[in-house]
Amino acid sequence: MPHYVLYQRDDCHLCDQALAVLAEARLPEPESVFIDGDAALEARYGVRVPVLRDMARDAELDWPFDLQALDRWRA
Description:
The protein has three helices and four strands; from the N terminus they run E-H-E-H-E-E-H. By secondary structure, the chain is of the alpha+beta class.
């Protein structure tokens, strides 16, 4: 099971920005889950993407986030 999941949409520039922040933070590469076409995921994450989920802690971080917010969330 991946440690992190990034819920995102196809052709989402905010999702690209989130991936850049995660790379800058040297976070292990998250599993990408695209919510497009999945009614349940669209209902849950539709207006919130990108959303980073820590599977071990069952915690989510909504966009926008930067390195500082990511560090606080991970602590």
